[in-house]
Amino acid sequence: MNEVEIEYCEPCGLLPAAEKTGHALLTTHAGRIHGLRFTPGHGGVFRVDVDGETVFDKASEEDFDVDVIVARVGARLTPPTIQL
Amino acid sequence: MNEVEIEYCEPCGLLPAAEKTGHALLTTHAGRIHGLRFTPGHGGVFRVDVDGETVFDKASEEDFDVDVIVARVGARLTPPTIQL
């Protein structure tokens, strides 16, 4: 549970966008995300999943807004299980 | 295969070091790393694994050198399987 994956198109240069998203998620949801995986991909992909469920997919949404992604991920995470 | 994990101590503020290491790995070994996972942890942990085998562990090595970690990871990755 609380596993996040960011698949990004490596040849298209989407690593910085993936890193920006990953940083926002790991800081905003510190203590709740158990793991965040970067998956290099192809073909323009940029997709964010939580426990296998897509919360953002560039293929179906043009606007890339990190704050929106952070909020959507937060809504799917189970409450804090790690005490800070 | 070619799965990298970076476990870092979240309360100790080691996320920046983890992100610096992750960036170096995903750029230097682009096309070879299939996935890179950030795992928030506790107790001062900072460990880098490739396919479950530790290549760097802060608990047993004081010097944190990203270039050394990048070289060690590279030595364990199977040759490029993704064409760029």
What secondary-structure arrangement, pairings included, does this model have?
Two copies of one chain form a homodimer.
Chain A: E1 3-9, H1 15-28, E2 35-41, E3 46-50, E4 53-57, H2 66-76
Parallel strand pairs in A: 1-2
Antiparallel strand pairs in A: 1-3, 3-4
Helix pairs in contact in A: 1-2
Keywords (chains A, B): Redox-active center
InterPro entries (chains A, B): Selenoprotein_Rdx-typ, Thioredoxin-like_sf
Protein name (chains A, B): SelT/SelW/SelH family protein
3D architecture notes:
Two copies of one chain form a homodimer. Helix content of chain A is 30%, strand content 29%. The model of chain A has no long low-confidence stretch (mean pLDDT 93). The first copy, chain A, has 84 residues and is α+β, with helices and mostly antiparallel strands. Chain A starts with a strand and ends in an 8-residue tail after the last helix. Chains A and B meet through α1 and β2 of A and α1 and β2 of B.
Order of helices and strands of chain A: EHEEEH
Which assembly state applies to the chains in this document?
homodimer
The number of distinct structural domains of chain A comes to 1
Structural class of chain A: alpha+beta
